[in-house]
C-alpha cells in the first residue's frame, strides 16, 4: 500500500456523545492517557480550567458549569491516528454538536448505567441515525448500583432502533462488581477500584477456569452467565458491515473513573471504527453544479469548515476555522482557496490539536482536523481546496425557534455591533436575521442560553452593551422557488416578513405554525425549508 493510502486508512475520527455527567470527560481523559497522549490523569479537566482563566468569554462557561465549546484532540495508538471530537453537552448548544457530528466517521456513545439513555443523548442519536453514523456504545459506572444490563441493552436497542451486540459482559455491579467478560477473547478481567492502574495491570482469567471463577464470584457469576447467555442468544453476531452501515451497535461495559473497560473501547476504535469515509459535494462545471462524491484518497486537498471559533486566545483578535480534511494531503505553505468567495486563503497559522496543545501542522490527511487562524473571510460551511471548484454539502443550520430583537444601548457603537453580529453569525454562535423592511436586527436561537452567550460576548469582545427584547416571531423558514418571478410574488405579498440571514439567504419569519401553513396554501409553489444546508 502506498504511504499516502496507508495514512488515510490508519485514521479514525470520532465524536464522543453523552448526556451531561454520564462520564464523557472522564472517558476522554482515560483514552488519552492509555494511548499515551497525556501523562497525567486530571489533565483534561485541568485544560478546561486553564482555558477559563485565559479566555474572557469562556467566563460564562465557568459560571454555568457547562461546556460551550467543542474541542478536538489527536492521539496515536497502535500505529493509528485517532481524532477525537468532543461535543458540548448542554442542550442549548445542540446546533454546534450537530455540526461536529458532520465532521466525524463514527461516534462513541457514553451511557450512565444507572440512568440509561437520557434526553440529550436521544437528540444526538437522531442526528447520527440520519447520517447512518456507526455508533459504539460504552455503558459506564458499573461500579455503582445500576440497572440490570439486559434492561440497559433493551433500552439502547429501542432508542437507537438497532440491535445491540455485547462485546463485553459485566459480572455483578456496584459493591459486588466483579469485572467484565470479553466475549471475543473468552476471558474475564477482574475489577479493582482506583485510578492508578493501567489496563494491562488488571488480573485476567480465561473462561476455561470457569470453576475457579464461579467459586470466587458466587451468585454474581451465576447471574452473569445466565444473563450473558440470554443477551448473546437474543442479539445478532457482530457484523462489521452492519455496524458500518449504522445497523447495529457493539456494546462495552466498564467504569471510566476506575480505568476499567476503557482499553477495550480504544481497541474497538482501531479494530472496528471506520477509516475516513467519502463525502458528497457539488462540483461546479460551466457554472452548473453537479453532484460528486469525494473519496478520502483523492489526491486534491479539500476540507470543510464545520466550526469557527473567535478569540480562543483573548490576546489575539483572530478566529480559528476548524476544517475537517476530506481528501488529499495538506502541507504548510500550500495555496488554498475558499470556494464561496473564490479568494485565496492566507492563514496566519495552521495548527493541529494535540491533547493539550496546538502545534503547527506538518501534514494532514483525510479524517484530520486542522485549525486555520484567520482574520476573517471564512464562514461555517465553507469548502477550502487547493483550487478545485467544489462545495461540500450537508452542514446543517436549523430554523431557530426563539427570537430576540437587539437594542444597542449606545448608538455610537452601531458599527461595532454590526461587526460583532456578522462575526458571531458566521461562527454559528447565533443566527442573525436582517429584516428586509429595515428596523432592529433579530437574533434567532435554538436554545435560550445562546442569547446569553452572545450578549456576554458582544460586551466582552466588541464593547457593545445590548438589550435583548422579546419579539413576535416564533419561527423561520428558508424559502426558495423554482423561478425568480414566483419568489418575487411571494416577497411582494409579505414584505414585513422577509429577512436575510448571515449567509444572505432569504427567510420568512412567522409568528405561529399556522402562518407557514397559510402562506404555503396561498403560495403552493414556494418551498419552505426548516433546515438549511450550507451550499
Ligand atoms: P461528563 O463529562 O459526561 O459531564 O461527566 P464527567 O466525566 O465529568 O463525570 C461526571 C461524574 O461522574 C464525575 O464525578 C466523575 O468522577 C463520575 N464518574 C465518571 N465515570 C465514573 C465511573 O465509572 N464510576 C463512578 N462511580 N463515577 C464516575 P463528579 O463528582 O461530578 O466530579 P469529580 O469531582 O469526580 O471530578
UniProtKB/TrEMBL annotation:
<keyword id="KW-0547">Nucleotide-binding</keyword>
<dbReference type="GO" id="GO:0003924">
    <property type="term" value="F:GTPase activity"/>
</dbReference>
<feature type="binding site">
    <location>
        <begin position="140"/>
        <end position="143"/>
    </location>
    <ligand>
        <name>GTP</name>
    </ligand>
</feature>
<comment type="function">
    <text>Increases the formation of ribosomal termination complexes and stimulates activities of RF-1 and RF-2. It binds guanine nucleotides and has strong preference for UGA stop codons. It may interact directly with the ribosome. The stimulation of RF-1 and RF-2 is significantly reduced by GTP and GDP, but not by GMP.</text>
</comment>
<dbReference type="GO" id="GO:0006449">
    <property type="term" value="P:regulation of translational termination"/>
</dbReference>
<dbReference type="InterPro" id="IPR031157">
    <property type="entry name" value="G_TR_CS"/>
</dbReference>
<dbReference type="Pfam" id="PF22042">
    <property type="entry name" value="EF-G_D2"/>
</dbReference>
<keyword id="KW-0648">Protein biosynthesis</keyword>
<dbReference type="InterPro" id="IPR009000">
    <property type="entry name" value="Transl_B-barrel_sf"/>
</dbReference>
<dbReference type="InterPro" id="IPR004548">
    <property type="entry name" value="PrfC"/>
</dbReference>
<dbReference type="GO" id="GO:0016150">
    <property type="term" value="F:translation release factor activity, codon nonspecific"/>
</dbReference>
<dbReference type="InterPro" id="IPR035647">
    <property type="entry name" value="EFG_III/V"/>
</dbReference>
<dbReference type="InterPro" id="IPR053905">
    <property type="entry name" value="EF-G-like_DII"/>
</dbReference>
<dbReference type="InterPro" id="IPR041732">
    <property type="entry name" value="RF3_GTP-bd"/>
</dbReference>
<protein>
    <recommendedName>
        <fullName>Peptide chain release factor 3</fullName>
    </recommendedName>
</protein>
<dbReference type="InterPro" id="IPR027417">
    <property type="entry name" value="P-loop_NTPase"/>
</dbReference>
<dbReference type="GO" id="GO:0005829">
    <property type="term" value="C:cytosol"/>
</dbReference>
<dbReference type="InterPro" id="IPR005225">
    <property type="entry name" value="Small_GTP-bd"/>
</dbReference>
<dbReference type="InterPro" id="IPR038467">
    <property type="entry name" value="RF3_dom_3_sf"/>
</dbReference>
<dbReference type="InterPro" id="IPR032090">
    <property type="entry name" value="RF3_C"/>
</dbReference>
<dbReference type="Pfam" id="PF00009">
    <property type="entry name" value="GTP_EFTU"/>
</dbReference>
<keyword id="KW-0342">GTP-binding</keyword>
<dbReference type="Pfam" id="PF16658">
    <property type="entry name" value="RF3_C"/>
</dbReference>
<dbReference type="GO" id="GO:0016149">
    <property type="term" value="F:translation release factor activity, codon specific"/>
</dbReference>
<feature type="binding site">
    <location>
        <begin position="18"/>
        <end position="25"/>
    </location>
    <ligand>
        <name>GTP</name>
    </ligand>
</feature>
<keyword id="KW-0963">Cytoplasm</keyword>
<dbReference type="InterPro" id="IPR000795">
    <property type="entry name" value="T_Tr_GTP-bd_dom"/>
</dbReference>
<dbReference type="GO" id="GO:0097216">
    <property type="term" value="F:guanosine tetraphosphate binding"/>
</dbReference>
<feature type="binding site">
    <location>
        <begin position="86"/>
        <end position="90"/>
    </location>
    <ligand>
        <name>GTP</name>
    </ligand>
</feature>
<comment type="similarity">
    <text>Belongs to the TRAFAC class translation factor GTPase superfamily. Classic translation factor GTPase family. PrfC subfamily.</text>
</comment>
<feature type="domain" description="Tr-type G">
    <location>
        <begin position="9"/>
        <end position="277"/>
    </location>
</feature>
<dbReference type="GO" id="GO:0005525">
    <property type="term" value="F:GTP binding"/>
</dbReference>
Amino acid at each position: 500500500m502506498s504511504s499516502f493510502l496507508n495514512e488515510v486508512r490508519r485514521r479514525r475520527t470520532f465524536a464522543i456523545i453523552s448526556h451531561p455527567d454520564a462520564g464523557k470527560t472522564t472517558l476522554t481523559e482515560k483514552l488519552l492517557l492509555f494511548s499515551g497522549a497525556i501523562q497525567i490523569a486530571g489533565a483534561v479537566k485541568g485544560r478546561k480550567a486553564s482555558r477559563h482563566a485565559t479566555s474572557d468569554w469562556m467566563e460564562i462557561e465557568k459560571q454555568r458549569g457547562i461546556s460551550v465549546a467543542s474541542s478536538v484532540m489527536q492521539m496515536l495508538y497502535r500505529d493509528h491516528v485517532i481524532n477525537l471530537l468532543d461535543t458540548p453537552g448542554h442542550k442549548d448548544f445542540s446546533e454546534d454538536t450537530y455540526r461536529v457530528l458532520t465532521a466525524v466517521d463514527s461516534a462513541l456513545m457514553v451511557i450512565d448505567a444507572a440512568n440509561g439513555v437520557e434526553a440529550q443523548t436521544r437528540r444526538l442519536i437522531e442526528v447520527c441515525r440520519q447520517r447512518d453514523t456507526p455508533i459504539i456504545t460504552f455503558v459506564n459506572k458499573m461500579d455503582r448500583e445500576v440497572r440490570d444490563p439486559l434492561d440497559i441493552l433493551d433500552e439502547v436497542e429501542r432508542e437507537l432502533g438497532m440491535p445491540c451486540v455485547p462485546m463485553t459482559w459485566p459480572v455483578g455491579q456496584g459493591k459486588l462488581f466483579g469485572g467484565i467478560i470479553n466475549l471475543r477473547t473468552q476471558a474475564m478481567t477482574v475489577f479493582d477500584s482506583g485510578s492508578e492502574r493501567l489496563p494491562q495491570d488488571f488480573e485476567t482469567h480465561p473462561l476455561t477456569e470457569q470453576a475457579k471463577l464461579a467459586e470466587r464470584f458466587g451468585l454474581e457469576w451465576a447471574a452473569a452467565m445466565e444473563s450473558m447467555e440470554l443477551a448473546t442468544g437474543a442479539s445478532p453476531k457482530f457484523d462489521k458491515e452492519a455496524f458500518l452501515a449504522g445497523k447495529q451497535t457493539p456494546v462495552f461495559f466498564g467504569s471510566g473513573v476506575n480505568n476499567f473497560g476503557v482499553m477495550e473501547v480504544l481497541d474497538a476504535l482501531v479494530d472496528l471504527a471506520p477509516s475516513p469515509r467519502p463525502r458528497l459535494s457539488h462540483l461546479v462545471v460551466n457554472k452548473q453544479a453537479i453532484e460528486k462524491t469525494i473519496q478520502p484518497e483523492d489526491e486534491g486537498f479539500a476540507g470543510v469548515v464545520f466550526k469557527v471559533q473567535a478569540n480562543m486566545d483573548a490576546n489575539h483578535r483572530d478566529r480559528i476555522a476548524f476544517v475537517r480534511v476530506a481528501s488529499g494531503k495538506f502541507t504548510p505553505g500550500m495555496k488554498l482557496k475558499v470556494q464561496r468567495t473564490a479568494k485565496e486563503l492566507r492563514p496566519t497559522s495552521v495548527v493541529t490539536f494535540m491533547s493539550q496543545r496546538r502545534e503547527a501542522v506538518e501534514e494532514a490527511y483525510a479524517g484530520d482536523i486542522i485549525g486555520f487562524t484567520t482574520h476573517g473571510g471564512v464562514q461555517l460551511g465553507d469548502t477550502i481546496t487547493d483550487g478545485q471548484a467544489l462545495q461540500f454539502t450537508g452542514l446543517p443550520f436549523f430554523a431557530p425557534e426563539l427570537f430576540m430583537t437587539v437594542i444597542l444601548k449606545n448608538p455610537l457603537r452601531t458599527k461595532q455591533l454590526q461587526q460583532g453580529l456578522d462575526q458571531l453569525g458566521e461562527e454559528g454562535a447565533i443566527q442573525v436575521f436582517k429584516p428586509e423592511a429595515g428596523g432592529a436586527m433579530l437574533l434567532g436561537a435554538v436554545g435560550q442560553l445562546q442569547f446569553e452567550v452572545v450578549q456576554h460576548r458582544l460586551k466582552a469582545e466588541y464593547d457593545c452593551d445590548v438589550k435583548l427584547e422579546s419579539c413576535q416571531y416564533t419561527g423561520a423558514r428558508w424559502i426558495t422557488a423554482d423561478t425568480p418571478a414566483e419568489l418575487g410574488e411571494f416577497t411582494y405579498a409579505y414584505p414585513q416578513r422577509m429577512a436575510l440571514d448571515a449567509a444572505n439567504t432569504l427567510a420568512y419569519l412567522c409568528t405561529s405554525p399556522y402562518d407557514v401553513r397559510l402562506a404555503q396554501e396561498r403560495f403552493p409553489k414556494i418551498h419552505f425549508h426548516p433546515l438549511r444546508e450550507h451550499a
